[in-house]
Design a protein that fits this description.
A 5-stranded mixed β-sheet has the order 2-1-3-4-5, sandwiched between helices. The protein is built from 9 helices and 5 strands, in the order αααααααββαβαββ. The chain folds into 2 domains: about 90 residues, DNA polymerase, domain 1, CATH 1.10.150; about 120 residues, 3-Layer(aba) Sandwich (Cytidine Deaminase, domain 2), CATH 3.40.140. The protein is elongated and about 70 Å long. Helix 2 packs across helix 3 and helix 6 runs antiparallel to helix 7. Helices cover about 45% and strands about 15% of the residues. It is an alpha+beta fold and about 220 residues long.
């Protein structure tokens, strides 16, 4: 069914303005972003198809440009709109609009939220000064669902160049598991030893999954 064939008060855009965005389904919200359908489907049907192809809203947040462009009916303009919208959502989760004047711990919690939307494994370093105030962070590397590579020497150089004296390391497990692997524990040990050699304090390494985290012991 085409949106124009619906009564005015049942159309997604009008319902959003009258009842608020929380009243709309994911398909309806997506239809507003897409604006139009294609030659075969109305915008609601296209929105439903996009969500089906991506595996839901979480999958949509993880979709790459090429994945979106491969969906029939999603051209460059629609793909760009969806990527921009999902990036805004990630930045809200990640807190990138917040000023970096407090401790490193708030930044850790923001990365925990942000990485909960990622389908690939990322390694992130958070840097702090002597007073444990946040001074910066880095997304060091990313890989597939099975792991990510980290250049430890690069990590040490970045920490020293940023004037940090303390470092926290975290990486996400896209499969949702919070348990550290043998490789995770070995990496923690190696990084701790190397940071000690260059005068940096290693505050710890944590695993992130589904909005939670657990420190590697």
């Amino acid at each position: 069914m085409r949106v124009k064939s619906l009564p005015a008060d049942e159309r997604p855009r009008e319902r959003l303005l009258s009842s608020g965005p929380e009243a709309l389904s994911g398909t309806e919200l997506l239809a507003i972003l897409l604006r139009t359908g294609d030659s075969k489907r109305g915008v609601m049907e296209l929105a439903s198809h996009v969500l089906e192809q991506c595996g839901g809203i979480t999958g949509l947040c993880r979709a790459t440009p090429n994945e979106l462009l491969s969906i029939p009916g999603v051209g460059r303009a629609k793909a760009a709109t969806l990527l921009a919208a999902t990036e805004l959502a990630k930045r809200v989760f990640g807190g990138q609009e917040r000023k970096s004047t407090s401790s490193w711990e708030w930044r850790l919690h923001e990365w925990v939220s942000r990485l909960s939307l990622e389908g690939r494994e990322f390694v992130v370093a958070i840097y702090a000064d002597d007073d444990e105030a946040f001074v910066g962070d880095d997304r060091l590397s990313y890989g597939g669902v099975d792991g990510a590579f980290i250049d430890v020497k690069y990590l040490l150089r970045r920490a020293l160049r940023m004037g940090a004296s303390k470092v926290v390391l975290l990486h996400n497990h896209p499969d949702g598991a919070l348990e550290a692997s043998d490789e995770d524990m070995q990496l923690t040990k190696i990084i701790s030893q190397m940071m000690h050699l260059v005068g940096l304090e290693f505050l710890g390494h944590c695993i992130v999954a589904q909005g939670s985290y657990k420190w590697v012991k």
